Amino acid sequence: MADLLGSILSSMEKPPTVGDQESRRKAREQAARMKKIQEEEKKKKAEFRKRMEKEVSSFIQDSTVQKKKYNPMSKIERSILHDVAEVAGLTSFSFGEDEESRYVMIFKKEFAPSDEELEAYRKGEEWDPQKAEERRRLREQAALDAQSANQTETQTASPSSNYRDKYSHLIGTSAAKDAAHTLEANQAYGCVPVANKRTHAPSRRR
């Protein structure tokens, strides 16, 4: 145990070898390179953000455009553009199936896209408002036709008037005949309806 401790102490007291000095030098160079890369990335991000802020400002001031589509860009660039758009009060979305093809679209708030428009972009399709309006009208007409067909089926299944209403003239005549027969039978057997009975006080002979 003492020998092991002595060997460790003696190795620590020795001056660094040429190999150790070379490793330290390479580590310092690598750290310097990393710092330089980070500074360059930071500078590029700042420049990109400044350029996006200028483009977004021009987009806002141009009353002839409602939306703007950008070319595919990296995830970091998309993040910066989304942030710039949000600060400017715009709506922004990313589209594209894979990372290499993803791009950003920005919209003015008053022209924010509908769910149908967003779905078209997600599918990689161009948005055509006229075609969309035609599809909407066709869907509404189909819904109206289906509703009309359902109402027709319901009316066919259940009669428009009930049995008693439909045959009221026959039922009424039959009821009158039954009442007449009942009256004749009562008269034949000397029965008098209650309504026709009168209460007479017994007569007294004076």
From TrEMBL:
Pfam families in UniProt: R3H (PF01424)
Query: Which intervals carry biased composition (Basic residues)?
Result: 197-206
Q: Which residues form the R3H domain?
A: 46-109
Question: Entry's PROSITE patterns?
Answer: R3H (PS51061)
Give the top-rank taxon of the lineage listed in the UniProt record for this protein: Eukaryota
User: Which residue intervals are annotated with compositional bias (Basic and acidic residues) in the record?
Assistant: 21-46, 119-142
One Gene Ontology molecular-function label? nucleic acid binding
Segment Disordered: which positions? 1-46, 116-169, 185-206
Q: What is this protein called?
A: R3H domain-containing protein
Q: Which species is listed as the source?
A: Conger conger
